[in-house]
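$ ./design --mode recover --in tokens.txt
reading tokens...
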């Protein structure tokens, strides 16, 4: 028999992402609509262990859908990786009457949710990460805002790069996944895209391509470099020395995490948050909300964490063909 849920908790964990507030708002309001009490947990799992918990009303999440970041705050929590920390987190949930929990975050956050589910706390994960690196879903909260922010910045760099006939290396976020670099590389018409999944670290190929394009009359050369490759500034110095072409590095950094979320991030995050609340109200646990084949769905956390995700080969090949 499905466990009856009376009080639903919600937290955000790991890196922040624009659209998280839309998801929080949806969890709160859909849970209240379903007749449940809602508690906000501040500063992620760290705040859960420290009992930074308070009741949330529909009014508490008013006018938050357009705000970047997370109104609940977020933090890394090493204690949640230990059995002692996991048991303590479950006890805190029980102490505060939280029998259902929505965790908005990435794979690391879902691993914590998985442990809490095993300890009797019904948990649902909602994918919130700008990296789009969660294998079970085609969409993650914050990705659309991040790529639009980066795209607009790269457009601006291209303008000045063309004026000065420079080579520009623009470093975007993505330590282990190259989705932001790939999407921006296509959207911005970059001449080269460097991602951890594909880069062979043959810098001479880059140099040859820059020289070849210069001879063809190109007035700029845009390289979109993923954070996982990094070293953009030293790379720029080496390229300039080898080509004689002025080369500058621009590191976009955490500006990609913030800002008012796009329409897509607001709508999709709202749908996912409401879906998560409904799953808990149905007594479901150990699930991850996802978006697949045009619809919102859910997966077993164990299955979701076991899945592997790779860059779409068709997109990668298309990016290469269009950069000629």
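writing sequence...
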């Amino acid at each position: 028999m499905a466990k009856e849920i009376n009080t639903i908790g919600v937290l955000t964990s790991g890196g922040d992402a624009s659209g998280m507030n839309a998801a929080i708002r949806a969890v709160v309001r859909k849970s209240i609509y379903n007749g449940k009490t809602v508690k906000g947990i501040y500063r992620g799992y760290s705040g859960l262990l420290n009992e930074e918990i308070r009741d949330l009303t529909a009014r508490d999440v008013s006018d938050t859908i357009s705000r970047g970041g997370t109104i609940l705050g977020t933090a890394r929590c090493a204690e949640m990786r230990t059995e002692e920390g996991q048991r303590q987190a479950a006890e805190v949930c029980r102490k505060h009457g939280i029998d259902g929990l929505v965790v908005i975050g990435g794979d690391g956050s879902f691993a914590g949710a998985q442990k809490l589910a095993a300890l009797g706390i019904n948990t649902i994960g909602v994918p919130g990460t700008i990296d789009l690196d969660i294998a079970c879903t085609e969409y993650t909260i914050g990705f659309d805002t991040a790529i639009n922010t980066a795209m607009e910045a790269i457009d601006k760099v291209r303008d000045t790069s063309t004026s000065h006939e420079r080579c520009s290396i623009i470093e975007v976020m993505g330590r282990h996944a190259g989705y932001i670099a790939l999407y921006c590389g296509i959207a911005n018409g970059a001449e080269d895209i460097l991602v951890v999944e594909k880069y062979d670290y043959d810098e001479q190929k880059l140099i040859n391509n820059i020289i070849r394009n210069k001879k063809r009359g190109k007035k700029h050369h845009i390289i979109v470099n993923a954070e996982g490759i990094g070293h953009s500034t030293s790379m720029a110095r080496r390229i300039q020395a080898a080509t004689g072409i002025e080369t500058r590095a621009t590191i976009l950094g955490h500006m990609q995490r913030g800002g008012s979320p796009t329409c897509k991030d607001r709508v999709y995050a709202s749908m996912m948050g409401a879906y998560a609340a409904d799953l808990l109200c149905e007594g479901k646990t150990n699930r991850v909300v996802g978006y697949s084949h045009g619809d919102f769905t859910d997966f077993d956390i164990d299955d979701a964490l076991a899945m592997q995700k790779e860059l779409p080969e068709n997109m990668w090949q298309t990016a290469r063909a269009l950069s000629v």
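exit 0
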